[in-house]
Amino acid sequence: MQFPKRQPSKPLLGICGALLITALVALDVSADVQMSAMTYKKLEKARVLMDEEQGEAALKLLMDYRRRVKSKPVDNAIVHQFMANILVQLDRIDEATEVVGSAYQRPRMPERLGILYGKLLVIQEKYTEAEKVLSDRINLEGDVPAEAVYTLAFTRFHLENFALAETTLLEAIGMVKVVPRSWHELLLALYYQQEKFESAEQLAKLLVEKRPLDGENWRRLARIYLEQSKYSEALGALMSAHHKGLLSHHDIKQIASLHGHLDMPENAARM
Q1: 54 DSSP 8-state letter
Q2: Do the Cβ atoms of 63 and 123 come closer than 8 Å?
Q3: What is the per-residue DSSP string for 10-50?
Q4: What pLDDT digit, counting tens, does each position of 87-139 carry?
Q5: In this structure, are residues 82 and 27 in contact, taking their beta carbons and an 8 Å threshold?
Q6: What is the CB neighbour count within 10 angstroms for residue 115?
Q7: How far apart are alpha carbons 40 and 156 in whole angstroms?
Q8: What is the pTM of this model?
C-alpha cells in the first residue's frame, strides 16, 4: 500500500482537473470591469445561446465580433475569455488554449488573461509552459486569486519541484477561509513525496476526521503509518474502515497480511 511515486493519486488528479475546468466555465463579467456597452450586449447574447445549448452559434457570434474589438485590450481579453469558456464546455480544450494563447501574446493585454492561459496549459498537462506563464503573471499582479496560486502549486508538483510546490500551496491555503478538499490532498501528496511523514500523518488524520466515510482517506492514513513502520496503527486504521464497510477485497487481504506480520495468525485466518 504505497502512494504512486512522482504522481498524485487518481482521485486527486480527477478532482484537480475538475476544479480547473469549473473555474473556466464559471467566468463572468464583474461590474467593475470597464468594457463597452456593445461588448456587454454581445456577451449577454452569447450567454443566452449557451443557455439554449447553442454553443456553436455562441462561438461564431464572438468570433465574428472579436475583429471589432482588436484595438481595445480589455474588451478583446474578455471576448477571448468567453470564447475559451465556450470551447471548454464544448470539450475543445486545444482550441481554447490556442484562442487564449494568441490573445495573450498581443501587447497591452490584461494580466488576468495570463492566469486563464496558464490554467488551460495545465489542463493540457503542459506543465513547463504553464509554470512560466503562471509564475510571471502572479509575480506581476497585485491581487491574485488563491485558486491561481493553487494551480501554480499543482503545476510545480507535476514538475517534481516538491519543496517549492509546498511553499506555493501553503501560500494559497493562507489566502482562503475554507480549504478545498483537493488542496489538502495535494499537500498530503507533497508531504509524502518529501518523506515528511509526521506532517503527512497529522494531515491524513484531519482528512479522516472530516470525511470518515471516505475509504481512500483511511487507506492513505494506513499507507503513511506503514511508511513509518507503525504496523499496529496501520492495522487499526484499516480495521476501522473495514468495520464501516469501506474496504475492497485487496484491502482485506492487506489486513490479513498485517495480522500475520503482528503474529496474530488466528485473526489473519478469519479475514
Answers
A1: -
A2: no
A3: HHHHHHHHHHHHHHHHT----TT----HHHHHHHHHHHHHH
A4: 988 889 899 999 888 887 776 566 667 888 999 999 889 999 999 999 988 87
A5: yes
A6: 23
A7: 36
A8: 0.75
